[in-house]
């Protein structure tokens, strides 16, 4: 039986989607530090309608970050299917690495979101706060299940309250693991 096509949100309001999101849970990746904490993403709208992406995590007290650009895969479609392009700093020449970013669910107040992509290898639960209530979390897990995800692989990401300032532990290891974990390279 063929899996049904994964459904993305329609009519995402990009401006409302901007700002900081905390990673509540995700599928762990072989390359991601097992001890990555306080993982978060900050999105800023660019003048040309693309989105600046800053992903940060803290591992062993050190901040690790990577920046990229997100844009609609099909500008004519109203589906929230984005591509995210990262320029990977440690390698020369600098190569862009592109991955899929589909918003599978977002609540009416834009407070929590479920992000996935068509291979179902990656899944993220994001929230505007460092913590999400149990009911909303379980609801998102059910949504992921409906979209064909193996939710037993979800792992919660430790978040501290208040979250760290960007400067804390700012020795940056240049996002190698982000790049690898996002694209499974």
From TrEMBL:
Any Pfam family hit: Lipocalin_2
InterPro entries on file: Calycin, Lipocalin_ApoD, Lipocalin_bac, Lipocalin_Blc-like_dom, Lipocalin_CS, Lipocln_cytosolic_FA-bd_dom
Span of the signal peptide: none
Domain of life: Eukaryota
Domain Lipocalin/cytosolic fatty-acid binding as annotated: residue spans: 12-159
Cellular component annotations (GO), alphabetically ordered: cytoplasm
Annotated stretches, region: Disordered: 150-175
Biological processes per GO annotation: lipid metabolic process; response to reactive oxygen species
Entry similarity comment: Belongs to the calycin superfamily. Lipocalin family.
Protein name: Lipocalin/cytosolic fatty-acid binding domain-containing protein
